[in-house]
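Q: Hi! First time doing this. I have a protein sequence and I read that you can turn it into a structure. Is that right? Here it is:
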Amino acid sequence: MKNIYKYLFIAISIVIITSCEDEDKNPFPANELDSSAVLRTLNIINTEVDINNISASNISIEVEADDFLNNSRFESVDVFVSFVDAFVDKDGDLTPTPDDDDDISKEDVLVRNIPASEFSAGDNGKPKKVISVAASEAIDLLGLNSEIPKIDGGDIFRIRLAIKLNNGDIYTSTNLNTNVAGGLFFNSPFRYDGNVVCGYPETFLVGKYQLEWISGVFPAFGVSQSFIDEEVEITASSGTARQIKAVTYLKEFAFSGPLNFNLICGKIILPKQDSPGGVGCGGGNIMLETDGQLNAGAFDVDGVDDSEFTMKFIDAVNDGGCGASPYEVELKFTKI
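A: Yes, that's right. Below is the predicted 3D structure, encoded as C-alpha cells:
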C-alpha cells in the first residue's frame, strides 16, 4: 500500500512541477502573439497610503510594455483608480465608529492617458515607465474629499492599467489569463492595490516564530494539511510589509516558498499572491489572498506586543487548473 501511494505521490508531483515549468514559458500560442500585449511589472516602488498623512502618499510602480511586434502597435496606457472600502460592518459592532457602517467604495475613474512617446527604452530595448498616482489626486477624482474621516486602515486605492494598441485592442486585468497575471514569464497583473496603512517600526513583528496550523485543507490530491507546524523567519521590507522567507505548503508534497503579508492597523492582510512554491496544474499558479478586514488575522494594533499573531486567508482563489474550490486557512504564530 505504501508503494502505491508513493508512486501516486510522485506522479502527481511530476504533473504539478511540469505545469510550473510550462507556466514560465510564453502562455500565448504563437499564432496569437500578434493580437496580444502585456504590461510587465518591473518594480513595485510604493503601494502604501499612510492613514496619518494620506494627502502626501502615492502609489508608484514601474512597468514595461510589450506587444510582441517590437512595440510597433503600442499606442498608450490608460491609468484608472478606484476605492475599495474594505471595512464595512452595517449595523454591527466590529468597527471603531458608526461611520464604518457606510460603504464609501468608488468605481473606476480615468486618471490619465500616457502615450507611448512618454515611455523610455530599457536595457532590453522595450519601453518602460514609472507610473505614479498621488492619493490626493485619487481622492479628488473619486469625490472622496468629504469622506476622508471614513477611510480606515485596510481600505484600498486600486490602480488599474490598460495597454492600448493602434488597432483598437485593449488589454487589462479584466481580459487576461492567470499565466499573464501571475506567471514568471509576464508578471503582468495590470492591477495594483495601494493599502491604507498605519506605520510600524521595521523591528516590530520580525524574527523567528513558531507557525501552528489551525485549519484549512487543500481539497484535492489527498492533502491532509495545507501548512505544517514549523519554525519560520519573518523579515521586514518596510514599516508594514513582512515576508516569511520560506513556509511549507501542502504537507504531503512539501512545496516551499515565501509568504508575503502586510500589517494594516491591527490586521494581517495577505495581498493576492502565488501560494508558496508557485505551483499549479497547467492553469497558472494557485493563488491566495485575505478576504477583507472582517475576515483577517490580527496583531497588537499599538505595535508593542509582537509575541503572537494570527493569519487568515483564502487559498485557491485561483486554483491553477487543479480543480480545487477556494477554502479558508487559519495559522497562528508565536515568537520564539
